[in-house]
Design brief:
It is an enzyme of class 3 (hydrolase). This protein is α/β, with parallel strands linked by helices. It is built from eight helices and seven strands.
């Protein structure tokens, strides 16, 4: 028997400037729960993090949150998750989240989301894993990142295969289809 799938979602601890970001976060959490996939995320109850988690919970989904002690007050650690882990460091947080996921989804977010994305992307680039990495490109949020990846490849700092390691999707329906395919 295969284990139930888990999807790590990296996203902002802030709501962002557009209401569409929260709408997409809620839709992502609800979709994961509807599919029976566990949400793995940073255990915060603020910003997009809180939106995705509450939506997953409201839809009856399993939630696995990981938060370092020092961010507990800032990100308002969400204690009512199915699994709630408190780590000593950010490095531990990222490792526990990644190790408990079968795929990575990145919603709009800031420097922390970029840090998490580039860590798992680098690990994939150097052959440490083959987990799929999806970017939810709500309202074109990740278009500048796609251009940067193209520049990195074009300037000879990465092989063209780097582009294929990131799958950019415009909406949650496309994300769901891509995850179903990845898990098949």
């Amino acid at each position: 028997m295969t284990h139930p799938r888990s999807v790590c979602v990296y996203c902002g601890s802030r709501a962002g400037a557009k209401p569409s970001y929260a709408t997409a976060a809620k839709a992502t959490g609800a979709m994961l729960a509807a599919r029976g996939w566990q949400l793995v995320y940073g255990a915060g109850d603020v910003g997009l993090m809180g939106e995705v988690a509450r939506a997953a919970q409201d839809a009856g989904g399993r939630t696995f949150g990981v938060i370092p002690e020092h961010l507990f007050p800032r990100e308002v650690g969400k204690r009512d998750l199915t699994t709630f882990v408190v780590t000593e460091t950010m490095h531990e947080r990222k490792k526990v989240m990644f190790m408990n996921a079968d795929a990575v989804v990145v919603l709009p977010g800031g420097a922390g989301s970029l840090d998490e994305l580039f860590e798992v992307l680098t690990w994939r680039q150097i052959g440490l894993h083959e987990k799929p990495i999806f970017l939810l490109n709500t309202d074109g949020y990740w278009n500048p990142l796609a251009a940067l990846i193209d520049q990195i490849v074009g300037e000879g700092f990465a092989d063209a295969s780097l582009r294929d390691m990131l799958v950019m999707l415009d909406d949650v329906d496309a994300l769901e289809t891509a995850l179903v395919s990845a898990f098949a």
